Amino acid sequence: MGTLRLTIPSPSPALTFVRNRQRKFLYAGLSSILLLVLWGTLLIVFDAPYGGLGQGIGSDGVSLEAVRNQTLGFEKIFCINLPSRTDKRDAIVLGSSITQFHVDWIDGVSSEDMSPKAYPPHLDDADRPRMLPGEIGSWRAHVNALQRIVSERISTALILEDDVDWDVTLKTQLHDFAQGALALQPNQPHASPYGPSWDLLWLGHCGMKCERNSPFYIIKNDPTSVPAYALPQYWAGPAIHPLVDNIKHNRLICKSTLAVCSTAYAVTLPAAQKILAAVSVAPTEESMPAGESIVYDVMLGRLCETGYLRCISTYPSVMGNWKGAGLPSKGSDIQYRYDGPREERVFEGASFWGVVYSVMDNLGGLVSGERVVRASVRDVMLPVLDLGRVKGNRGKLHVLDYEEMVLSGV
Ligand SMILES: *[C@@H]1O[C@H](CO)[C@@H](O)[C@H](O)[C@H]1NC(C)=O
């Protein structure tokens, strides 16, 4: 087909393109070659100023500011951690203390400690892809988190895996995210600062897709938007379209379908009940289709994709991952990794993925009271960030006309 030309939004209003009907007629009269060239042209229309959402306080008095409280606007925050990985618990306790939020623990599970009778349902179906022992343990730990939410009637909870890393400016990011999430939902009374009608907020993922043909929110000039080159491998996508996803310094917030990696996600109590049913107690063809993987994050993504859960997510992911310095096997407790014979072992430095101002990467300065942080990736808006000058960013709803490749505000 024709060339796909991206017209990057220019700061100058003089370069703003507006496509109208007359122009369409003119195009129709041109030669077929020209038509082919124009076919895929992406016109980006940034016509209205950002803002004007007016959603400061929910109708029953929940303030957006609640996202900055000790549990980030959720009732509880849980982190899943194998008790034997005390090193990771140290890191989460320190990082969350610096970012000023509080984490409760869900003990990770080793599949060897489980009765095979308690393994995921349909695990042994003839055509089912095999699950690693670590994946079975991880499934159980996540299900334990859901069980606790249901049992204690926790209205909303954020669930983290213990190799999570996040941005020093997390609370500001969540404030911006909540504004985006609210813009995607009906304007109804709500008890959660994130809005009235969501089941799952997918905040830490490794790839996601937005619902096609529904409006999505774009925040421009978000200094915490990880540039595309520096993203970890994303296994699902594009979020909207590669040309839209990769506009520099943008963050997209949308109703999401497929997503992978359960690094960080929030659920409501009714959603925890629904997921507990679908992945453990009462699985259906919808949650565990024949021949498909039932690894936990894959199932969760499927439940968003089928519409069983109303999911909201952001591209790029808000949360990322890190691995402390040491042997390569130090990272994941799910995938088995052999470090080689003792005399040949290679030690690695710490590594960080998917976050611009990584808390874990900046711990040294932060514990000494430094108020300036460094970006962990290159090619960002601000390589060095003064924490006294962090400010939020408002965005605006957009739609993409996939046929004409026109992006416009709504
Ligand atoms: C934070 O805000 C949420 C939502 O309003 C609330 O459920 C939670 O209890 C608050 N957390 C704290 C520690 O006050």
Automatic annotation (TrEMBL):
Residues 75-177 form the Glycosyl transferase family domain. It comes from Aspergillus ibericus CBS 121593. One of its GO terms (molecular function) is transferase activity. This is Glycosyl transferase family 25 domain-containing protein. Keywords: Glycosyltransferase, Membrane, Transferase, Transmembrane, Transmembrane helix. CDD domains: Glyco_transf_25 (cd06532). The keyword Cell membrane does not apply. Belongs to the glycosyltransferase 25 family. It holds the Pfam family Glyco_transf_25. The chain crosses the membrane at residues 25-46. The lineage of its organism: Eukaryota, Fungi, Dikarya, Ascomycota, Pezizomycotina.
